[in-house]
Design brief:
The protein is an alpha+beta fold. It contains 18 helices and 18 strands. Helix 2 links the parallel strand 1 and strand 2.
Length: 589
């Protein structure tokens, strides 16, 4: 049942294209437009406006393989299951087919194209609660495919319901598992237990309800299907290996690490996995056309953290030379064919990795000096947990590193105290990430639509003032404010900031209609439309938003209908975002 990476990608895309789906390219790892989450976290993330009812230029049946980054559990990387970067194979019905077709196609793909036997399958369905009924309909469709009652399990909302805490599209899902044939662990053994008998392989979400602000559910006018199959997990499972790091995806870098360290992967699993995962993720972040560099804020901070954990793990493997660019070459060799932006941005990737490696080497040196001070103050032979965590959080010292130095100096470390500090830090990080993810998916309010239109106007005014070398580098929008990053190599003067504000307000006061039209990318470019990441769209249709003679941009929306709806535009701050990139924060009042 073995399969190559290329074969798995091809099987997925060709199967759904044979079912009338249009293949769309992977979106950026940085969310566009409504960017209130740091990274693209799921295949459905770039498609939220269309799941909410907007018309997608490519139609109502879509499929892709989306680059995703999840950092909520970044500290768990090193086990067999956690990855920060992964590829999500997905397909969508935007108000077209629903449960019957999706269940039939899921069964067909798993059995006829991936080669699983029907008796190997186990599926779960929603058992119902006070908010929504038991999903016997989906279970019935599975029975039509030949599954027996003992292959169908019903679970509650924690396992078989997808929705956002604050409302929006939601509904039951059906998850597919492979039963490895080992004996059940008990009478209640099923896909929800973790005995190892079942491996999840696919999830079909049926968005048939909308959750209102008061918690009530109403039927959606447009029922959607949203599915996801993790490529790495599936590749590992089908090739009979225990984790994604043992697949061909990491073979080149794994072999390079073994050569550099003199150790085998099986001899040092955790540091190997951290290096393999974090270098791959860093390459995909740096390889994006946004050209984001490591920094101490937002995505740049996550990138810096990934790189530094990789460097620490290299040192645990005994590798002290600067090797990140060489490891990055292995990632490029594996993926550049499928993601040409990596090769396009190769020089930027290599330069930033080398710079960060040199910078962090100096940080470690400073940390060793701090460690000397800590040891000189130690009482009772014990380094307290808060101090150990400070060394970790500020200087990048893993607990094992601090323990090693402590042991060499006949000292001990308060491990329990460190773990308490670490857990508190992790919980804060997770809550922050969840809040950003929630905002990114749930917020498609009228106010946010107005802010999207304001970014187009401001972008156009910046280009009027400073020339066409000004280009959008990112945006972050909430219902309360907008943030806009753009290429510019100096600080704006107070007079220039005021002029920009006045120009934007002048456009608003003209009450210009905002028009939307569908075009091929070539047509849009011929009309003079600009847009972030325009290369991604290939020849598929795109949405072009036109504001009179002021602005014409390729964008996913949503937008205001008229500039007069925006209110008064006020700039709060103009500041540096990174080298050669400025940031403006503004509000509509």
């Amino acid at each position: 049942m073995s399969i190559t990476y290329r074969e798995l990608r091809q099987k997925w895309l060709e199967f759904f294209k044979s079912k009338g789906h249009t293949e769309i390219p992977s979106a950026s790892v940085f969310p566009e437009n409504d960017a209130t989450v740091l990274f693209t976290t799921a295949g459905m993330h770039p498609l939220v406006p269309y799941l909410m009812g907007q018309k997608h230029p490519a139609g109502n049946r879509l499929t892709d393989i989306q680059k995703c980054i999840r950092t909520n559990d970044i500290d768990s990387v090193g086990d067999t299951s956690h990855l920060t970067f992964f590829e999500m194979m997905g397909n969508w019905s935007l108000g077209d087919y629903f449960k019957k077709e999706m269940v039939a196609w899921s069964f067909e793909f798993l059995t006829q194209h991936l080669g699983f036997k029907p008796e190997q399958l186990a599926v779960t369905c929603f058992k119902g609660d006070e908010n929504a009924p038991r999903d016997d309909e989906t279970a019935g469709f599975w029975k039509e495919q030949g599954l027996k009652d003992n292959q169908i399990f019903f679970y509650g909302a924690d396992d078989n319901w997808w929705g956002l805490a604050d409302g929006g599209p939601c509904g039951p899902d059906t998850e597919m598992f492979i039963d490895n044939g080992q004996p059940a662990c008990g009478a209640d053994c099923g896909p929800a237990c973790h005995c190892g008998k079942y491996t999840e392989i696919w999830n079909d979400v049926f968005m048939q309800y909308e959750k209102k602000a008061d918690g009530s559910l109403v039927k959606l006018a447009q029922q959607n299907v949203d599915t996801g199959m993790g490529l790495e997990r599936t590749l590992a499972f089908m090739n009979g290996v225990s984790d994604a790091f043992s697949t061909e995806l990491f073979a080149g870098m794994r072999q390079k690490l073994e050569e550099l360290s003199g150790k085998k992967y099986a001899e040092a699993l955790v540091p190997f996995r951290k290096v393999l995962d974090h270098v791959r993720t860093s390459v995909f972040i740096l390889g994006d056309d946004k050209h984001l560099a490591p920094s101490n804020t937002d995505q740049g901070y996550v990138l810096r953290r990934l790189i530094r954990v990789a460097i620490r793990s290299l040192k645990q493997l005994g590798i002290t030379d600067f090797v990140l660019p060489a490891l990055a070459e292995c990632v490029l060799d594996q993926y550049a064919e499928y993601y040409p932006e990596l090769q396009r941005n190769r020089d930027f990737i290599m330069t930033e990795l080398a710079k960060e490696e040199q910078l962090f080497n100096r940080t470690i040196t400073a940390g060793l000096k701090e460690m000397d001070k800590v040891m000189s103050r130690v009482q009772n032979g014990l380094i307290d947990g808060q101090t150990a965590f400070h060394l970790y959080d500020t200087y990048g010292f893993p607990l094992e590193f601090t323990q090693q130095i402590a042991t060499e100096n006949n000292l001990q470390v308060d491990v329990d105290g460190f773990n308490k500090c670490f857990q508190a830090h992790q919980e804060l990080s997770r809550k922050g990430a969840e809040q950003k993810f929630k905002g990114g998916l749930a917020d498609h309010s009228e106010k946010s639509a107005h802010y999207h239109t304001a970014t187009h106007i401001m972008h156009a005014m910046l280009r009027q003032m400073f020339g066409e070398t000004v280009a959008q580098k990112g945006s972050n929008i909430t219902p309360e404010r907008m943030r806009f990053d753009f290429s510019f190599n100096r600080k704006m003067t107070p007079e220039e900031v005021k002029e920009l504000e006045n120009r934007v307000n002048a456009v608003i006061e003209q009450k210009i209609p905002v028009e939307c039209a569908e075009r091929t990318l070539a047509e849009a470019q011929a009309e003079g439309a600009i847009g972030l990441f325009a290369h991604k769209y290939d020849a598929e249709k795109v949405k072009v938003y036109t504001i009179g003679t002021v602005s014409k941009e390729v964008c996913g929306g949503p937008h205001a209908q008229n500039t007069g709806d925006l209110g008064h535009f006020r700039i709060l701050k103009e500041e540096s975002s990174s080298a050669g990139v400025r940031r403006i924060k503004a509000v509509l009042e």
